[in-house]
Amino acid sequence: MTPPETITPPVRVQRADARRNRELVIRAARKRMAREGLEAQMEDIARDAGVGVGTVYRHFSTKDELIEALAFDRFERLRDVAHAALDIDDPGAAFETFIRESARIQTEDRALSQVLTSRPEVMQPAAESVGMLDLVAKVLGRAQRAGAVRRDARPEDIPMLMCALAGTFKGPFASTDRYVGIILDGLRSPDARRARLT
Amino acid sequence: MTPPETITPPVRVQRADARRNRELVIRAARKRMAREGLEAQMEDIARDAGVGVGTVYRHFSTKDELIEALAFDRFERLRDVAHAALDIDDPGAAFETFIRESARIQTEDRALSQVLTSRPEVMQPAAESVGMLDLVAKVLGRAQRAGAVRRDARPEDIPMLMCALAGTFKGPFASTDRYVGIILDGLRSPDARRARLT
DNA sequence: GTACAATCGGAACCAGAGTTCCGGTTCCGG
DNA sequence: CCGGAACCGGAACTCTGGTTCCGATTGTAC
């Protein structure tokens, strides 16, 4: 029997500078990609983070892996938004808040909207990891039962429509709020829409 | 005075094979790009057309130029759709037809939707060359005056919303018709929507 | 039929962006 | 403090895909 104390814990604790640099890289990547989208360059990200490209690759062995990490991160935020919506009493208002808030998050992050529209292989696992579809189904179902949203809307429609909105942010004069409003009206149940006008 | 007959007409008539090849290239490019989007490769296009890359470049001195040519082409089709819509008597139906038909055209051509969502510098001249905005304004205005479409919709919204739809075609289970329907409902005037339900 | 200019084909070239590599540096346990 | 493993930086490499070049070919005017 080897004495127990010689068994080094298999999880090597990361060196402090490594941990710090990883954080710097993530922060820089988030900022760059929010502005420039997925085509932001590794070189630039590294420079912003104040490290060399090599360091970036030590932490994320590939650009896609970095993108994926950021995507997961964003979806956690979306999950929080959904949870917050579920805390709102009025189901219709909850739904609207959820949609508007998610749209805002996308507006602020070009990379996210690109992942949504053209990287299903990245988006799906990220969405799944936070149980996004279930959450959406909850928010939507509640609004439908309350008669605020049309019956024939399906949970999968929501991400799809978010994708759709994602496309519009680049246009010369896109006022996303207007489009969100139009889509919300399109999603409303006829009754709800009529009620809104009084 | 030089004898008039020696003055060669400045417009050199293109050789027959050149004209034919140009057509082949365009056709091949259209097909490839409809399927694969803007990232379709010159090499592949050339192969499909049965010519060498050099030949492609003789006719379109750059990939962007080729893309532009195809875009112009597509916009001509959209213009025709708009004209056809203007021939429909019922303004509301005309509007709906126009939207649905344009959406269909986009569904069938990935490159077009990519140009719409991420190449304003290509799209704008193309749209302008066929007077797209005016046409849209006409179709929309008529529907609005007839009370079929909400008053606060603006002509620029339409291309924007088309852009939006363009984003959704790639998703795993996108039934574009549903989304077009939702957006149409969102665009309808409350009266029109109510009337629809009876 | 001939000549010559336009055209063609595709190998070679080039630029950009991701990725690798390794000598130098830094943290950390003893 | 010291030794060495972990980590860093960034020059160099690679791979991809657009673009160029030029000898061979082909259409057309005479």
What share of residues are in beta strands of chain A?
under 5%
List the total number of helices of chain A: 11
Shape of chain A: elongated
Oligomeric status of the shown chains? homodimer
Overall description:
2 copies of one chain form a homodimer. Helix content of chain A is 71%, strand content 0%. In chain A, helix 6 crosses helix 9. The first copy, chain A, is built from 11 helices and no strands. Chain A starts with 15 loop residues before the first helix and ends with a helix. Chain A has 198 residues and is mostly helical. Chain A has helices at residues 16-36, 42-49, 53-59, 63-86, 91-107, 110-118, 120-129, 132-145, 157-167, 176-187, 190-196. Chain A binds chain B through residues 116-118, 120, 124, 150, 153, 156-157, 159-161, 163-168, 170-174, 178-179, 182-187, 190, 193-194, 197, and chain B through 117-118, 120, 124, 150, 153, 156-157, 159-161, 163-168, 170-174, 178-179, 182-187, 190, 193-194, 197. Chain A binds a DNA duplex (30 and 30 nucleotides) through helix 1, helix 2 and helix 3.
